[in-house]
Amino acid sequence: MVSLGRRAVCFAALVLSTLACSQDNERKDAATGGPDTAGSDGGAADLARDIVKAGEAIARAVTGDTFKVTGVLVGAGDIGRCTSTGHDETARLLDGIDGIVFTLGDNAYPDGAPSRFTDCYGRSWGRHRARTRPTVGNHDYRTPEAAGYFDYFGDAAGPRGKGYYSYELGGWHVLALNSVLRLNSWSPQMNWIRQDLAASRATCTVAYWHESRFSSGEHGTSSAMRAVWEVLYASGVDVVVTAHDHNYERFAPQDPAGTADPQRGIRAFVVGTGGAGLRPLGVVRANSEFRDASHFGVLKLELGSGAYRWSFVTTPDGEVADSGAGLCH
Ligand SMILES: [Fe+2]
């Protein structure tokens, strides 16, 4: 128990340190914001107080014996490629982590053909299929209507042809979306998302899909994903996990426009490190807090009552490259 307490204190210090970095960035922004210096400083001071309060609340929520893990999500995107051994390594990480496995699309390179699922994805992540709730990516759609994907995962992938669905895990509401289908304001999927979130009574919600709204990777930030962020943000969704770029990245809570928002913002992760291949980072985006383009790995999300913890677990031996915690709205 003593060591747990020490870890908790160190962890709380890390959280507060991370938040302090965000606070510094906001102050810099305020300082360069033009002649209205007094107003900017006041806003920065308010933001700083909010951040410190949030940090203290997180520390209380996730330290010591107060944080009870009610569910675990673990996974990545950009996974199976016959010529890569990266997904064999990330599958070995999954062997040692209980919970629901999520996939973030581009499951079977290069084209999502049935044989790519059975022979490539299947040889590694396939042994976890019974506990997997997948999402689909653009490469999976190189087979017409993503037939290889829907054939392989069956009912676990949601309605065939739609590929979006939701479920409950440890008191959390979980949305699995399809970013290859249209996600504009009045698309059928967006209407379903609104109805699904309106019907949810969960305090905490996480959503995952393939294409990232914000990313410092090769593909970068996507305006096509702004509309879905608007809907999720308005409904108080807490965490979004995506891939498409072949690296790991963590963003501070922000709004759909990319403005830091420690009170109502969505915490976002890019986890395109499932094993298909790694790619270098590009321009570092605002609110990016941590990036890793040199390791395959999986994101482990420990869900609790009103709070969550994250770990980026990397190959080959499970070293944790990034960790932290957050509170639900
Ligand atoms: Fe992709």
User: Which fold name corresponds to the CATH topology of the largest domain?
Assistant: Purple Acid Phosphatase, chain A, domain 2
What is the C-level CATH assignment of the largest domain? Alpha Beta
Overall geometry comes to globular
List all distinct small molecules, including ions and cofactors, that are bound in this structure: fe (ii) ion
Q: What is the overall number of helices?
A: 7
Q: What oligomerization state is this entry in?
A: single chain
Q: Spans of 5+ residues with little confidence (pLDDT < 50)?
A: 1-40
Which structural category fits the helices and strands? Answer: alpha/beta
User: Main sheet: which strands, in order across?
Assistant: 4-5-6-7-9-8-10
Q: What percent of residues are in strands?
A: 15-25%
Write the element-wise H/E pattern from the N-terminal end onward: HHEHEHEHEEHEHEEEEEEE
The CATH architecture assignment of the largest domain turns out to be 4-Layer Sandwich
Q: How many separate domains?
A: 2
In CATH, what is the homologous superfamily of the largest domain?
Metallo-dependent phosphatases
Question: In words, what does this structure look like?
Answer:
The protein is of the alpha/beta class and 329 residues long. The protein folds into 2 domains: 2-62; 71-327, Metallo-dependent phosphatases (Purple Acid Phosphatase, chain A, domain 2), CATH 3.60.21.10. The chain has 7 helices and 13 strands. The chain has helices at residues 2-31, 37-62, 86-95, 114-121, 147-153, 188-199, 226-234; strands at residues 71-76, 100-103, 132-133, 165-169, 172-176, 204-211, 239-243, 248-254, 266-271, 288-292, 297-303, 307-314, 319-327. The protein has a 7-stranded mixed beta sheet. Strands 3-2-1-11-12-13 form a 6-stranded mixed beta sheet. Strand 4 and strand 5 (172-176) form a beta hairpin. Helix 1 packs antiparallel against helix 2 (37-62). The longest helix has 30 residues, at 2-31. The chain starts with a helix and ends with a strand. Residues 1-40 have low confidence and may be disordered. Bound molecules: fe (ii) ion. The site of fe (ii) ion (FE2) has 6 residues, from loops.
